[in-house]
Amino acid sequence: MPSILKLEHITKRFGYRIILNDISFSIDRGEFVTLIGNNGAGKSTLLRIISTLSKPTHGRIIFNGTNQKEKLHEWRKIIGIISHENRLYEDLSSIDNLRLFGTLYGVENLENNTDQVLQQTKLFQVARLPVSNFSSGMKKRLMIARLMLCKPKIMILDEPFTGLDQHSNQLFQNYLKAFHKQGGTVIMVTHQLELGLELATRVLILNQQRIQHDNLASELSVDQCVDWLNNNEV
Questions:
Q1: What is the 3-state secondary structure (H, E, C) of the chain?
Q2: What's the CA gap between 70 and 62, in Å, rounded?
Q3: Each residue of 16-37: pLDDT tens digit?
Q4: How many CA atoms lie within 13 A of 159 on its CB side?
Q5: Rounded Cα gap, residues 35 and 58, in angstroms
């Protein structure tokens, strides 16, 4: 079977500045990939390209053996995203946000499932308040609730643990572990190296606009990753 996702020679420029340079790798179904890099390395840009929120300057992405451009609707229907932009409707309540996204994704038994994920993320008591009144941590929990509700097959996560309290952090870790154990695919950016190694099956190191290292997570240590990130001569 073809890889679920394959990047071929992805390059991204902003004007004369090169952000990503000739990035190529593939991800198999059921992998948990942690993408590590220093600030400004291009990690978020790469996730935006994979998510189709941004277009590469050069290169292409292959989804299930076919150019992603030809399967945009199918791709977008199976992915769940946590990014720096929350993509929530802030004038709506959390329950209305979830009902909207649940309807778009064809979630069955929507009312009960919405109540359930609000309970799990400790948002049930504020379910009818406008999202504009939420703290950044509450908005992050609502983004997690949206993932739980829509049940994607692939998660694309950019610093998903930032802003979470200890309880929410553990809740989301447990959810990711269960999702991966059931065959889900995850691509995650995090600066929490120890957690990133613990959760992942595979680690990619992005440095100097390129993927410099591609290793099994079980073969790496935090110190080794830090050394690679601090080495500008790799």
A1: CCCCEEEEEEEEEECCEEEEEEEEEEECCCCEEEEECCCCCCHHHHHHHHCCCCCCCEEEEEECCEEHHHHHHHHHHHEEEECCCCCCCCCCEHHHHHHHHHHHCCCCCHHHHHHHHHHHCCCHHHCCCEHHHCCHHHHHHHHHHHHHHHCCCEEEEECCCCCCCHHHHHHHHHHHHHHHHCCCEEEEECCCHHHHHHHCCEEEEEECCEEEEEEEHHHCCHHHHHHHHHCCCC
A2: 9
A3: 899 999 999 999 999 999 999 9
A4: 14
A5: 21
Give this prediction's pTM. Answer: 0.91
Query: Do 180 and 154 contact (CB within 8 A), yes or no?
Result: no
